[in-house]
Structure formats: structure tokens, C-alpha cells
């Protein structure tokens, strides 16, 4: 997973379609933000079909991460700075 | 200055991708465009091995997929034409992302067993070239040929 691999993350969902990942975030998190494709989160640029949903739970960010051969993963990572940017 | 074309490859699991990418690169190069190719390491290796002397794609114009997205999102580069290879859900996501982060004229090269269903999911403006084919490159080649004359005229226009 490139640079993400070096970070501390939890995989909540793996090998799903982008739409399934979006529905998972929408249905499981109360605080959700819509961002555009190419939005920078941590050190990556989000890939997907708009609207891309990013969830927030406590001090963690929940977001879709795409691999060309393996589909969409939904990852959960600690990111207070990212949350501040999403809320602003 | 030549116009710049980007071929954005998907996962190379569907055999027609590499041959159509090289075919399209050849045609765009003949049309006077500078051709760049972005893809995963495996997708780029297939191109490198199939085109060892760089007749169709120069090695220095091959770009790691993540790096390509990064450069486009940071507005450090852009292209005049972008062809995104789509044969799965991830391909649709990359196509939608290119639509958002690039000003390039956008083409979707849609193939594989789910070509028609994938094509139906695209609800934004782009030129679609669609063929339900996995191993046989000729249906896609034929459809590209139908389009390439117009692209050649466009490539030399201002």
C-alpha cells in the first residue's frame, strides 16, 4: 500500500467495490464528510467516484483506499490534524 | 510544442490491456503527441518487456501510478489527452479521479467481461471506447481506429 504501509492503520473492510466502501462509511459513522477525488489525506490523494466519504470517530479518520488490482479498502487511522482540516 | 497524452493503465490481469496500450501509444505517437504511460509496477514492466527498444513508449515517460496521481493533484503537471483503461471497479474510480484532477480530454477504454455494465456506471463527460473482450484485442483496436482520425486532427490543432 505504498506510504500507507509504513503507518499505523486498521483495515475495517477489504477487497470491496468503491460503492460498498462508501456505504460502509455512511452507515457506520455519525460524523462523515464529503471530499473530492484528489483530496489529500495523510500522504495520499484519495481516488474514487464522488462523493468520497471520510468518517471521523474520536481521534481516528476512516477513509477509502484504492488498490488497482485489489479493490477498495476502508482504513482507520489516527489523525487529529486531518480531523481538524476536515472540520474546518 | 507537442500535445501530451497519458495512458493510465489498470491492473494488468486482463490480457488485452498491454497490447492495446502499445497500439494506442503507437497511434498517438504517429499523430505527433508525446505519450506517457502510468501504471502499477507490473503493468509498466509488461510494457517495458513488450517494447524493449522504446519504439512506442520511452522508458523515461513511464510513471508510477501513485506518483502520477500525486503530480496531477498537486498541479505540477497535466496532459492534453488522457486514456484511462477500465476493466474493473477500480478503473471507474481512477477515471472519475482523472475527471476531477486533470483538464485533459478524457477517454475511457472499457474492456473485459463487465465492459457494458462498467460503461453504464459512468455519468460524467468522457469519450467511451467499449468492447466486451478479454483476450482478443481486435474489437478494441477497430473502435480505436474509428476514433483515431479525429484525434489526429485534434492533436495538430491549436
Description:
The complex is a heterodimer of chains A (88) and B (158). In chain A, the strands form 2 sheets. A 5-stranded antiparallel β-sheet of chain A has the order 1-7-6-5-2, with helices on both faces. A two-stranded antiparallel sheet of chain A has the order 3-4. Chain A has 2 helices and 7 strands. By secondary structure, chain A is an alpha+beta fold. Chain A has one domain. Chain A is globular and about 30 Å long. Chain B has 158 residues and is of the alpha/beta class. Chain B has one domain: Rossmann fold (3-Layer(aba) Sandwich), CATH 3.40.50.10160. Chain B contains 6 helices and 6 strands, in the order E-H-E-H-E-H-E-H-E-H-E-H. Chain B has helices at residues 16-30, 41-50, 65-73, 89-101, 115-120, 138-155, and strands at residues 4-8, 34-39, 62-64, 81-86, 105-110, 127-130. The termini of chain B are close together. The model of chain B has no long low-confidence stretch (mean pLDDT 96). At the A-B interface, strand 4 of A face helix 3 and helix 4 of B.
Strand content of chain B: 15-25%
Main-sheet strand order of chain A equals 1-7-6-5-2
Overall pLDDT confidence of chain B: 96
- What is the CATH superfamily classification of chain B? MTH777-like
- The strand order across the widest sheet of chain B is 3-2-1-4-5-6
Shape of chain A: globular
* CATH fold assignment of chain B: Rossmann fold
Can you give the mean pLDDT of chain A? 94
Percent helix among the residues of chain A?
A: 10-25%
- Give the structural class of chain B: alpha/beta
- Counting DSSP E segments of at least 2 residues, the number of strands of chain B comes to 6
How many domains in all of chain B?
A: 1
**Oligomeric status:** heterodimer
In N-to-C order, the SSE pattern of chain B is: EHEHEHEHEHEH
Distance between the termini of chain B: 10 Å
Low-confidence stretches of chain A: none
